[in-house]
Amino acid sequence: MKFFLAAFLFIAMQSSSRGQVALQYELTLFDSSIHVELLFRPTVKDSATFTYGVLQFGGQADIFKGLQNVQAQSPARVKIDSANRKLTFYYPGSDPVKINYDVFDTRSENTTRSQLFRPMIMKDYFFTHGVNLFLTPAFEAEGSTIMVSVEWKSKPPFPVFYAFDPDNDGSRIAVTTADSIAFRLLTGANDLFIKKFSSESGSNYLVLRSSGMSATVKQEVENFYLDYNAVMRKFWNDTRKINYSLVLQPYLNVNHSMSGISFGNGFIGKYNKPDSLALGERMFVISHEIGHYYLGGVSAFEGEDNIGQWFNEGFNDYLTFFNLVHAKRMNAAEFDSAFNQLFRSFYNSPIRNTPNNKIFENFWLLGDYAKLPYWRGCVFAFYLDNQLSIATRNNKSLRDLMLDLKALVAEKDKKEFTNEELINAVSKYLPRADFEKALQEYIINGTPIAFKNSMLLPIFHIELKDQTPVLSVANKKAFEKHFQFK
Length: 486
Ligand SMILES: [Zn+2]
Hints:
- A 6-stranded mixed beta sheet has the order 4-7-2-1-11-13. Strands 15-16-17-19-18 form a 5-stranded mixed beta sheet.
- It has 3 domains: 19-181, Immunoglobulin-like (Sandwich), CATH 2.60.40.3650; 191-295, Zincin-like, CATH 3.30.2010.30; 300-486.
- The chain is built from 12 helices and 23 strands.
- The chain has helices at 2-15, 112-117, 178-182, 215-235, 280-295, 309-326, 332-347, 368-391, 398-409, 419-426, 432-445, 476-482; strands spanning 23-29, 33-40, 47-51, 67-72, 77-81, 86-90, 97-104, 120-121, 125-129, 136-137, 147-152, 160-162, 174-177, 185-189, 192-199, 202-209, 242-250, 258-263, 266-271, 299-300, 416-417, 460-465, 468-473.
- Helix 5 (280-295) crosses helix 6.
- By secondary structure, the chain is an alpha+beta fold.
- The N and C termini lie far apart (54 Å).
- A hairpin with a 4-residue loop joins strand 5 (77-81) and strand 6 (86-90).
């Protein structure tokens, strides 16, 4: 028994050291590339396959051209399948395999997508997602998680931030899992500003490039960030200890007010000018993205063709309206004007009738295809929120349904609900057949809702002008009250 315990302790100690790390990365920053030395300790026999980049991530079909000079030290060898972005290493025994490669900044144009989804590597700044710097194992380690370590051979001469280890400034080794590293970013810059906010609810990190940013803007961003997180926790009754990072950086020579993407535990937003980052449309973008983190525990079934986007993006948009009004950061007039803009874009789009399961095949063409699930889902959420409140005489709102859905998926491995489960959940409040029909028509078939006043709370007035709904808030007090919750 004693021996058994001792052996167990020994194993436990081993696994916390670098000895159990299957992929040990050492990085060196150059002017337009990062040199990677990788020590791979095989956990599978004979050969192991990795992928580099993700085809659909930002539609960067040629991302593989940034991976260059791949070498495996003899006796190991490597076979590269560029078309499928795959690298297979062959090795005779179980000895560690030494691998070298370079990741180059291969952006050929200054666009929002190239600066959000491709590695940006410069003398004084770098930005890359893990999946574009590290190799993603296409195999599973028997019965264990694949551990990864990252360190700089010589640290860049400026602050560094890892989303997978936000307290680490790059001066020491970071140890994490291969899963966690893939969709978390790394960045560094001569003007990188990192601030950590700790509270009983966990840690929030704010990561900015501060050049040209006034103290006022910095303070506004900080206030909004902490405020909005508190509102979202309240909305979702969320009691987790969180570890969330908001990263804001300027686009370089791209004139776009703001866009970005969520990563595992945060959001990277890029903008053209370092002003009004916590106001108007930009505030909405940041809020939407923080929303994903909290909505992360509930999603609609996605399948192969991302058929749940109407919920995962569209409901997220509506919940952003909901919580911004709740937080008193959006008033009735602003809600009105934003919603009417949405109605105009949606109802006048030539592709407004595209069935839900046909959107994805065109999604990365962008234009309206990328926006349709947002518009359609947001408008449907607005409709449903009104329907729920009407049916329950203002006792319930979309928030109650969201909390029901969160509870429904809580025990599942994949936090997805099916259409059937959604219909069941809604039928607690609305006649089942009515909602089943609405979901089929407005989401699955893709017919835009022909709004009538009777579909909405008396808070709102709606009329169709040339088939496009025009919304106005008829009762400001009742409007504000609708979005309150305890
Ligand atoms: Zn989104």
